[in-house]
Structure formats: structure tokens, C-alpha cells
Amino acid sequence: MVAVKMRFLSIAVSLLCAAAAAFGYAAAVNDGSPHGDPPYLLEPGWTPLLNGRNLDGWRSQESNHGSWTAARSIFWDGVRSPNTLTALSPGSGDRISNGATGGITNLVTTKKFGDVELYLEFLIPAKSNSGVYLGGLYEVQVFDSFGVAKPKYSDCGGIYERWINGKGVGGSAPRVNASRPPGQWQSFHIWFEAPRFDAKGKKSANARFLRVLLNDVLVQENVEAEGPTRSGMEIPEAPRNPLMLQGDHGPVAYRNIYIRPLRPLAP
Predict the structure, then answer these.
(1) Dmax over Cα atoms in the chain, in whole Å?
(2) CA–CA distance, 39 with 116 (Å, rounded to integer)
(3) Distance CA 116, CA 237 (A)
(4) Cα separation of 143 and 154, whole Å?
(5) Helices (H) and strands (E) in the chain, counts
(6) 87: number of CA atoms within 13 Å, CB side?
(7) How many C-beta atoms surround the C-beta of residue 50 within 10 A?
(8) Which end of the chain has the lower number of beta carbons within 10 A, N or C?
(9) DSSP code for 209
(10) pLDDT in tens, 248-262
(11) Of 20-29, 31-40, 165-174, where does mean pLDDT reach its minimum?
(12) Can you say whether the dihedral through the CA atoms of 249, 252, 255, 258 is positive or negative?
């Protein structure tokens, strides 16, 4: 059975590569290794979640807690103001920001997604903190972890802990610290499998992070999310849910957010 599955996977990957090549794309194999440009430039099927102008397609989780803005560019002054970000020409642009000091609402997509492959880039100042919540519930941590010798689940690239009866439970530390210094753009490439439910609506399988790359470095592989992580949306687990970007902690900026349906991983 295992041999049959591996053969099927190999055939599926080969067909996908052939299709990509036929359309003039690189025959990338979805193997988690860098291949030059970001994957959304090399392979078909990616959909941008930012339109390059405004925040259409997104909504504030709490409308009375400030709002994000689109911006032309993001400026970080590591000498005079290392803990803040400045959005230049706010109101229109291909970056999004939660303000100079952060601490506003979270940002949520208006669309819902199931099994997905997600690519995005983020920038944080010194000591800042954000997070990318797949399905609105399962967080991949964004944090200024540059130089941390032994990263924990709360460091950048970690799968955050759950919160049960007032106590933190679980969490998955990144395998290595792949964080860049504050003030530099960084990237996540995430392969995510949503939870499964039977015909009666009972959960039959947990959500799973098949692979997470931070700056093209493998930091998570085959990590099961037994339930929502701390500070996720107040929604039930489901086969399809929105994507959420955390904005109620420190300042952060995002750009080049692309998503596509999950496809087979190369063995």
C-alpha cells in the first residue's frame, strides 16, 4: 500500500511539473527547497490576497480597535526609532501595515480556505510580535527572534501553544532559528492541511502543518494542531475558515501574500 501511494504521489508530482512546464513555468517540484524567485513567480495556480491598492478582500476583526492601511513602502529607523515602523504614502500601495506602534485590530480575509499552500513576506521592528493564523485558529508565530540561540514555540516560525484552563499547552519550536534582523523583509512558505470532519460533523482528524519554511529554511514539518492555538478567532474549527493576520500586538507590515490549493509534496 505504501509503495502504491508513493508511486501515485510521484506520478502526480510529475504531471504537475509537466503542466507547469507546458505553460512556460519552471518545473519546480514543491520540495521545500529554494529555486530562485518566490514560488508565486515560478509556478502556476497562485492567487494574490493583496490587490496592490487597498484592503479589499480583508476586514477588521474588531472595527473599534483601529485599522490597517495599505502603503507604498515601509520605513524602519533602527537608530532613532527601532521599535516602530513608518508607512510611507499610506492609503494606497502593495504593502499593508498596522501602524507605527501596532496594538490595533487583527486583519481577516473575507474568503475562507481549506487545504492551502501560503506564501507571504513580513517585516517587523525590534522586539515586535505578530502571527499568521491559518484557518483563523492555528498560529505560526512572527517575532523578533534574531540571534536567539535556542528558539521556543514563541519564537519566529514556531507553532504557538494552545491555552487550556488558564495554562499554555503544547506548541512546536522551530527546528532552527532562521530569523533575519529586524527591519528586513522575511518570508513564510506554509503547507497547511485543514481539520477533517465526518458526515455528522465530528472532527475526525486534526489540522496539520505539513511544512513551514522561514526564509527558505525548513522550521516545521508534519506538525499536528490538536486544537486552536492561543488568541485565535472565536470561531469553531471547520474544513474552511479565513486567514488572519495578528495586529493587536506590535507593529508589522506584510506584502506579497499569495495562496493556492494544496498540492502533493515531493517525496
Answers:
(1) 61
(2) 14
(3) 16
(4) 8
(5) 2, 19
(6) 24
(7) 21
(8) N
(9) E
(10) 999 999 999 999 999
(11) 20-29
(12) negative
- Sign of the CA dihedral with 149 first, then 152, 155, and 157 last: positive
DSSP symbol at 161? P
C-alpha cell at 133: 493564523
CA 70 to chain centre: 19
pLDDT tens for 66-104 read: 899 999 999 999 999 999 999 999 999 999 999 999 999
**Bridge partners of 119?**
189, 258
93 and 52 Cβ atoms separated by less than 8 Å: yes
Beta-bridge mates of residue 97? 69, 253
Which cell numbers in the block locate residue 207? 489540522
Q: How far apart are CA 145 and CA 176, in angstroms?
A: 11
pTM metric for this prediction: 0.91
Taking the CA atoms of residue 200, residue 201, residue 204 and residue 207 in that order, the dihedral angle to the nearest 10 degrees is 170
Half-sphere exposure of 175 (CA within 13 A, CB side): 12
| Whether 23 contacts 44, CB under 8 Å | yes
Secondary structure of residue 224 in the 3-state scheme: strand
Q: Which residue has the cell 510529475?
A: 14
User: What CA dihedral angle connects 83, 125, 68 and 153, to 10 degrees?
Assistant: -110
Q: Taking 90 as the threshold, does the pLDDT of residue 31 lie above it?
A: no
Please determine, looking at this structure, whether the domain spanning 33-261 carries the CATH number 2.60.120.560: yes
Which phi-psi region, left, alpha or beta, contains residue 52 (left: φ > 0; alpha: ψ -120 to 50)? left
